[in-house]
Amino acid sequence: MGISRSSRHKRSATGAQRAYYRKKRKFELGRQPASTKLGPKRVHTVRVRGGNTKYRALRLDTGNFAWASEHVTRKTRLISVVYNASNNELVRTNTLVKGAIIQIDATPFRQWYESHYAQPISKKGAAAKTAATAEEEKKSNHLQRIIADRKQNAKIDPLLESQFAAGRLYACISSRPGQSGRSDGYILEGKELEFYVRKLRSGKQKHAHNA
Question: How high is the pLDDT of residue 149?
Fold first, then answer.
């Protein structure tokens, strides 16, 4: 039996079984889930209704992620899946789906921040930066004024700062890897980040208690 997206097999709102008056139709078909995993990029094309094309990502290891508060987007490496509201099995198997909370490499964003604001992103990096100040390249007065102006607004959420120190950021996938062949998303910040950090901590405590 093929996978169907029709709801004729479902009961009505009152619980009555609907009459079976026709067979499955081509326009009601469904396909196997992509179950996109972490790994070297592997994307298949699927010919769909209307002669259009879908891109079925089977494995992905990079994606474009937006840092919304800084208005910057960078391509970075995916490290692991850490939380999924729908199913813990998707976390265990490192399956990439829309809405999954993942860890990404912080390096591209740290490099951008340090070049944009001309200062280290975390206190740990500040010590290393002081040693390199002697070899600092010369900047024009105009550029120095621009950087001084930027530094007034160069504030980072403490939760984000601790993640930068560890070299990993929490992010959410907002694209659909099984449809578009991409795993793009955004870095978690503010209330949303606090919410998922609480979820992850409570999950770890439960596992420790059960063990």
Answer: 65
- Stretches in the chain below the pLDDT threshold 50: 131, 134
pLDDT digits (tens, 9 = 90+) for 89-102: 999 999 999 999 99
3-state secondary structure the chain: CCCECCCCCCCCCCCCCCCCCCCCCHHHECCCCCCCEECCCEEEEEECHHHCEEEEEEEECEEEEEEHHHCEEEEEEEEEEEECCCCCHHHHCCECCCCCEEEEECHHHHHHHHHHHCCCCCHHHHHHHHHHHHHCCCCCHHHHHHHHHHHCCCCCCHHHHHHHHHCEEEEEECCCHHHHCCCCEEECCHHHHHHHHHHHHHHHHHHHHHC
pLDDT of residue 199: 92
